[in-house]
Design a protein that fits this description.
Rossmann fold, 23 helices, 463 residues, alpha/beta, single chain, Helicase, Ruva Protein, domain 3, 8 strands, GMP Synthetase, Chain A, domain 3, three-stranded mixed sheet
């Protein structure tokens, strides 16, 4: 009996010890995505480097990378986690277009990156293509663009500048553009909150917090992307708070982005929320159809210049793509890339009917929106417990989100009023009617309410 136990223990492999068999992964990709998608896109992905919690994958061109990220990234990550549960992130490297960076992909070279400075340079270089000149302006982002430029003209006048908005709307583009504009005469630090956390943890393990503090507090322009990732990490928040104060005291300009306003950051210290909201908060809304058309035409020009080929999409096709794309700019570009790829492969001038067939699995995809999903998304959006929202308490911080959830349940599901009432702790259908009327009226009269409804709808449609 004892011998059998020992044998079992020897057969056990921990998450950290698992090594991916890339052939098996590719087989799963082919089965999951289908032969056509696999042969066109996923077959060309190569495994360059495997870490415990993330992978570096190689793709042949930027076009491939952008297409894969916009259409398949979440599903690819889901498949990989089926082979190794600890994987939570993927990084892509261009292995044909950028020959000089290939050496960085070798295991022995990557392992040499030990100092904070070197690591920052390798992961957080400013992208010269994300500048002000190629940022497409529209009603949804003109305020954010205007103040991003003003920060470059008058450093520390708006401090911090906090840019918030949904995924794929251009926040990182603006942060990068600010960094490019100011880097010639300033010490610019541009980093994601995730990488900030990585260096913080690494410095603690190495007992090297003195160098960490010195490095991040010496910048004159401190730009940090996706600050919502510090949520729930108390030690990291403590360090960020002191870094923030130190930079403000020395007159450094701080620019921050997040997917929501400071007051709505979940599990973030109140004093940090207060500091973040103490400067200028500007938001980026979802693009309207005019902006989407501008973006499509700009992207077509960029692709034509890059690949030296003519892309013939008429105004009707462009308008169709713009009007049917309901999410964000990143996914809009993904849809456009799909249409262009089809046109290129088949050497055909596309019509709207062609586009409908090409994109039917995108635009006609039915996302199942349930009352449960609405309740969870609304409670998370307003940072309240689901049990509190469904309770009998009538305080305004709970009553309004509850009414919004009822309103959306009526508008976005096929459930009847009595059914919706039952899902909200057995409330009467007249309560649901009152909620629907109240939120309908407020969304017409109150811009903030209208914005909240639209953002929650976007969150529901993305899931």
């Amino acid at each position: 009996m004892e011998k059998n136990n020992t044998s079992s223990q020897n057969l056990y492999v921990s998450e950290e010890e698992k090594i991916l068999n890339w052939e098996d992964v590719q087989g799963a990709f082919k089965k999951t995505f289908g032969s056509e998608v696999y042969s066109s896109w996923l077959q060309k992905i190569t495994l360059i480097k495997e870490y415990n919690d993330f992978l570096i994958l190689g793709v042949p061109t930027r076009f491939f990378r952008d297409w894969i990220v916009s259409r398949y990234l979440d599903k690819i990550l889901e498949q990989l986690r089926g082979f190794k549960l600890s994987i939570n992130r993927i990084e892509f490297k261009i292995i044909e277009e950028n020959k000089q960076n290939q050496e960085l992909l070798k295991i022995n070279e990557i392992s040499k990156v030990t100092e904070i400075k070197d690591s920052i340079l390798n992961y957080n270089r400013l992208n010269p293509n994300l500048n002000f000149s190629n940022f497409i302006q529209g009603k949804s982002n003109d305020i954010a663009l205007s103040y991003s430029k003003k920060v470059c003209e008058h450093v520390s006048r708006y401090n911090p500048l906090y840019i918030c908005g949904g995924v794929g709307l251009g926040k990182t583009h603006l942060l990068n553009a600010i960094g490019l504009e100011l880097q010639s005469e300033n010490n610019v630090m541009f980093i994601s909150a995730e990488r900030f956390m990585y260096h913080f943890i690494k410095s603690i393990k190495k007992n090297d917090m003195v160098n960490f503090k010195d490095f991040f507090r010496k910048s004159s322009i401190f730009i940090i992307d996706d600050i919502q990732f510090i949520s729930g990490k108390e030690s990291l928040q403590e360090e960020f708070f002191h870094t923030f104060n130190s930079l403000i005291d020395k007159g450094s300009q701080i620019i921050i982005s997040a997917d929501r306003a400071p007051t709505k950051l979940d599990r973030v210290q109140e004093r940090i929320k207060s500091r973040l909201g103490g400067g200028l908060v500007v938001d980026i809304d979802s693009p309207d159809i005019e902006l989407k058309i501008k973006i499509i035409k700009k992207k077509i020009d960029e692709i034509q210049n890059q690949f030296k080929e003519n892309i013939n999409l008429n105004e009707d096709v462009i308008s169709y793509i713009a009007s049917e794309s309901k999410t964000n700019i990143r996914e809009l570009i993904g849809v456009l890339n799909r249409v262009i790829a089809f046109s290129r492969v088949h050497n055909k001038v596309l019509t709207v009917i062609d586009c409908k067939n090409i994109l039917k699995d995108v635009f006609n995809q039915i996302r199942v929106i349930t009352v449960d999903k609405i309740q969870n998304v609304v409670s998370n959006y307003f940072n309240i417990a689901l049990s509190d929202m469904l309770s009998q308490r009538r305080s305004r911080p709970l009553a309004r989100p509850r009414q919004i959830a009822m309103y959306l349940s009526k508008k976005m599901t096929t459930r009847s009023l009595p059914e919706i009432g039952r899902r909200f702790a057995n409330r009467d259908h007249t309560t649901v009617i009152h909620a629907v009327k109240t939120i309908s009226r407020l969304s017409e009269q109150d811009d903030e309410m209208k914005k909240n409804i639209n953002q929650i709808k976007s969150l529901l449609q993305e899931q």
